[in-house]
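Write out this protein's structure.
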Amino acid sequence: MQLKLQKRRFDLDWWRVIAIALVYLHHVGMPFNGDDFHIMNNTSSKVLDDVMVFFEQFRLPLLFLISGAGTAYAFSNRRWSQFLKERSRRLLIPLVFGVFIIVPPQTYYEHIDVHHSYGTFYRHILDHLNVNHLWFIENLFYISVICIPLILFLKSSRSICFKSLLVRIGHFKVGMFTWVLPLLFLKLISKVYFPEDSKDILNLSSTLFYGFFFVAGLVMASTPELWDCLKKYRKRNALVMLVTVLTFYGYYFLPSSIASKFFSIPTRWNLWYTVSTLLGWTFVITALGYGQVWFNKESRLLRLLTEGIYPFYILHQTVLVIFGYYIIALNTSIPLKIGLLIGTSLPVILLLYRYCIYPFRIPRVLFGMKNNR
């Protein structure tokens, strides 16, 4: 027995667009928040960092969950071999193209002082290969392939009992919230062995965390009743999310002098992983519930944004780094620099997409787009 899935979820399309827009804004702020980025302003903003840390907890989890749901829909009318071919075309080709063409300017501008020109830098490109922001595409490909047996299971009649159990849990008022328990277990245990924040696929603390959201998207897309639970209890989930936000910032702003009196360093990190995970999961399930009310409508604007958002993601960080390198050198305030960075990078990304990618077959393939019929 094969599960017939809804062909299009417009609410998920909108959340995908919103999530990638948040990724863009996050990278706009990175040179100015004091963290490590390819280019850094000579001063930083603590307020900006305090705001950005909130969005860091859910923008990528939301994107992975949407990708998992989209993967289930993409697999619904394909054999596994066809699906693997489709994943290679949509993910591997843009990844290889991006590593050799899109990403290198970021590395060049990050170390521009040690290179005579971009030409001399690129002649040794094999010494400078990085995935940078394209780690998301790399991880998505590997996770998609690893999850093929799970997708086949969810499509079969053998999964009926499993999905029925999830639906029964989901019908409790905080049923969908309880999914955070295995997520917390994965996070806390994996961080013991993989404490670093690297997004490399071999860093299991990162891969398992984002992989959980991907699998959650697969399961939700294969079990339509779970969407009804998210919609029905969206207000209660929003209330739980509000509590987790207050808890998150309460711990975030807790002075180190006080925390150190009561908790050891490992305990403090585990508390941070806990409040971060609670915030990430509760925001995602709340967003998915309200999205069905706010966003589940087709529109011409959505079609245009959905088609262009993948090339936008591939292009955005390189354009930001190039323009940002010159903007951070200006003698002006951080808010003005951020405004200049958005005002220059966004039009250039859109123009590159509209006139260099969208109309042509080969660029569309290289940027993972479907054929333009």
